[in-house]
Amino acid sequence: MKPDEKVGVFRMLTLVPAAMKLRKNPDKATLQELLPPDIYARWLVQKKLYLGRDSGVEKMRPFLVAERLRDAAIKELQLGGGGAWETISHFVEEKKIPVTTLTLEFTFKTADLRGQLKAFARQKLADEECFAQTVELTEALSNKQVEEARARAWATGDLAKLQELPPLPDPEPSCEQAIVNALAMTTPVPTDLREQMNELWFAAAGNALTKNESTLAFVPMSALLGEQGYLESLRKRGHEILAPG
Questions:
Q1: What is the pLDDT of residues 144-153, one digit of tens each?
Q2: pLDDT tens for each residue of 26-63
Q3: CB neighbour class for 6 (10 Å; exposed up to 12, middle 13-18, buried from 19)
Q4: How far is CA 242 from CA 83, 86, 157, 232, 239, in A?
Q5: Domain-wise residue ranges, the chain
Q6: Three-state secondary-structure class, residue 115
Q7: Of 88, 96, 62, 77, nearest to 143 (Cα)?
């Protein structure tokens, strides 16, 4: 998202109070009021494990609480790290290897920004599913035996083993869609943003495979596998897929 005109620092500062209100639920609603009782009960268990006595999160929007819970669980379980890209990015810069980063740009009217922030603050988001799936994710991550096996399979490119293991709940699509649907009501962001990004990626991947002797792509492992994953989609588009041996 980019503004249609330059926004000065002072003007941005005047928007901070309105932006801060976006974090809280409309009408001062709490998580207990918004969530099904069973999900809320499971949330309290995960909250105690990873967030302790942080009572301030009870009035925040579910998708923001979900993000905070996920980050705390990953840190506590020592599952974090910069990932593969961070490991080799310095080598890419050193060797001046061309990098293609894909983006979709949408322009919003700066004059409408304050009104859009206020409208968004009053808007209830459909983010309960995002929250519930995040609770499922942190519960699953606590299964040390399964996650160690998943880590070994990921590190060695053992796709067969990854397919055998119970899939980790993936809250990202539902969390992302909740935000996109809300933004679509007051901004130029379309509701099919993910589909547009996927098509952009496939077009760029096809172009790279045609032009380059070798191409390396960085995507989440969860996006590669399954009937809707990138590998199967590329296969359906006529590409030959050879799994790591």
A1: 899 899 889 8
A2: 888 899 999 999 999 999 999 999 998 877 899 999 99
A3: exposed
A4: 23, 25, 12, 11, 10
A5: 2-236
A6: helix
A7: 77
